[in-house]
Amino acid sequence: MAQIIACDIHPIDNLRVLAYLRDRLAQPEPVVRDWYAHWVQEGLSSLEILLSNDPHTGEYCHGDTPGLAVFNARNFAVDLSAFPTAVRIADAAAKLPAFEAAHPMNQPDAE
């Protein structure tokens, strides 16, 4: 599950790629956001299928212990309504002190 995010979503939706789309290719922000949303939704579709069909899915992705597969698509206002299991898990993880402390906006270099 973490590989879907790490290998399918993140490489083409990271800040470096988005900056290239904006700066080098001069794409307007709506086009960049559409790019981001498209690829996030593609990856999350695969993740949602895994999560909703796996008997080991519990409060988190694999049972009741949090793991690595949490996503950050909300920063780009991606429609996540098609991914209720993934959203439920991300919401549960976000309430944990360790996840809250690790949130990018809680880091000293947050922009």
Anisotropy-based shape: globular
Series of secondary-structure elements, N-terminal to C-terminal: HHHHH
In the CATH classification, which architecture applies?
Up-down Bundle
- How many domains? The number is 1
Name of the top-level CATH class: Mainly Alpha
What's the total number of strands?
A: 0
Tell me the CATH topology.
Glutathione S-transferase Yfyf (Class Pi), Chain A, domain 2
- The mean pLDDT is 87
Write the layout of secondary structure elements.
Blueprint: H1 2-13, H2 15-24, H3 29-53, H4 84-94, H5 97-102
Please give a quick description of this structure.
The chain has 111 residues and is mostly helical.
Structural overview:
The structure is a single chain. The protein has helices at residues 2-13, 15-24, 29-53, 84-94, 97-102. The longest helix is centred in the middle third of the chain and has 25 residues, at 29-53. The chain is built from five helices and no strands. Helix content is 58%, strand content 0%. With 111 residues, it is mostly helical. It has one domain (2-106): Glutathione S-transferase Yfyf (Class Pi), Chain A, domain 2.
